[in-house]
UniProtKB/TrEMBL annotation:
Catalytic machinery residues: K186
Family: Belongs to the DegT/DnrJ/EryC1 family.
Entry protein name: Aminotransferase EvaB
Gene3D superfamilies recorded: Aspartate Aminotransferase, domain 1, Type I PLP-dependent aspartate aminotransferase-like (Major domain)
Record's keyword terms, sorted: Aminotransferase, Pyridoxal phosphate, Transferase
Record-linked SUPFAM superfamilies: PLP-dependent transferases (SSF53383)
Classification lineage: Bacteria, Bacillati, Actinomycetota, Actinomycetes, Pseudonocardiales
């Protein structure tokens, strides 16, 4: 059987009754859009994070789009972020007519090099968008200090970091607002697309609610800024409510898988993830690094193991973003990492036997490349 980096089937088999019950609950509720399940999920997601507001939306990209717009970012403004991320982080900035401004990342933890941010701030900078990449939080205290000094809001991209903690705080509770994706592969995943933006700021929350619903507060009347149709579906909201009760278990399951990789591969020349002091990593993906990455991936196919690279091309070097003017070599660490990183299978229901097979195969291959 082929082993891949992610598979939802083992989890579905375990949770089948609950998922079917969620579907039945929604189908029998008489309300398929913005009903009890979305309201319930929003309350429970806020309570989990200890924030005042959750606004459920249709995907993580729109969670960022609406988050930025709700914070007042618009055409011609600049948003400082990283190129070492999933493209949607940057696509969201582009979509609202703002300009992404990139800083490089650290070579050891792959996260935003906060020390480079202040030099990039201009009069047009309207938001800072750190990405808690792979499930580990960016060094938030110095970033927030810069943000406060310049009066610029921070929107956290938490699409990969549900339940991650940073010096005791839950990811998404440190900036002015935070965007989450519930794409099926994520640490908290729906059975299709979903997302949410959370905040404790009442005005930002009111903006988000309007923006999600065409710009309306009540039906048929656009109040100020025309918005989007970006609603979270009842079906996904109800499934997410069920799964939210298991979120801490999912995170722990991922840490258990990471622990077994550490034990099985810690003595090889593969560079394993570095967890910074004060961080609780949730390992959305388990990213390792080796100069012979391509040969390793190729050789593992003979063992029926098909791995992924998150991500093979830095956003600034994708042709759709050449318009931003970042030449090759402009973000040297990001570019170097993209050539050497790859991901091992990671999900909480990953069978131990499968993981042992992966560890043995990787050890075999490392001895020959
Ligand atoms: C998945 C992801 C997104 C986008 O979420 P979608 O639900 O796929 O739109 C944004 N940022 C990061 C870092 C992601 O991993």
């Amino acid at each position: 059987m082929v082993t891949r980096v992610w598979d939802y089937m083992p989890e579905y088999e375990q949770e089948r009754e609950d998922i079917h019950d969620a579907v039945e609950t929604v189908f029998r509720s008489g309300q398929l859009v913005l009903g009890n399940s979305v309201r319930g999920f929003e309350e429970e997601y806020s309570a989990y994070h200890g924030v005042k507001h959750t606004i459920g939306v249709d995907n993580g990209t729109n969670a960022i789009v609406l988050g930025l717009r709700a914070l007042g970012v618009g055409p011609g403004d600049e948003v400082i972020t990283v190129s070492n991320t999933a493209a949607p982080t940057v696509i969201a900035i582009d979509q609202i007519g703002a300009t992404p401004v990139f800083v490089d990342v650290h070579e050891d933890d792959y996260l935003m090099d906060v020390g480079q941010v202040e030099a990039k701030i201009t009069s047009k900078t309207k938001a800072l968008l750190p990405v808690h990449l792979y499930g580990q939080c960016v060094d938030m205290a110095p970033l927030q200090e810069i943000a406060d000094r310049h009066g610029i809001p921070v929107l956290e991209d938490c699409a990969q970091a549900h339940a991650a903690r940073h010096h005791g705080k839950i990811a998404g509770t440190m900036g002015k607002a935070a965007a989450f994706s519930f794409y099926p592969t994520k640490v908290l995943g729906a059975y299709g697309d979903g997302g949410a933006t959370i905040t404790s700021d009442d005005e930002t929350a009111a903006n988000l609610r309007r923006l999600r619903y065409y710009g309306m507060e009540t039906t048929y009347f656009v109040v100020s800024t025309p918005g989007h149709n970006a609603r979270l579906d009842e079906l996904h909201a109800e499934i997410l409510r069920r799964k939210l009760t298991r979120l801490d278990e999912y995170a722990q399951g991922r840490r258990d898988v990471a622990q077994r990789y550490q034990e099985g591969l810690g003595d090889t020349d593969l560079v394993l993830p570095k967890v910074n002091p004060g961080n609780e990593h949730v390992y959305y993906v388990y990213v390792v690094r080796h100069p012979k990455r391509d040969a390793i991936i190729e050789a593992l196919k003979a063992y029926d193991i098909h791995l992924n690279i998150s991500y093979p091309w830095p956003v600034h070097r994708q042709t759709g973003f050449h318009k931003l003017g970042y030449e090759e070599g402009s973000l040297p660490v990001t570019e170097k990492l993209a050539k050497e990183i790859f991901s091992l299978p990671m999900y909480p229901s990953l069978p131990i036997g499968t993981q042992e097979k992966v560890i043995a195969a990787v050890r075999d291959v490392l001895a020959t490349v």
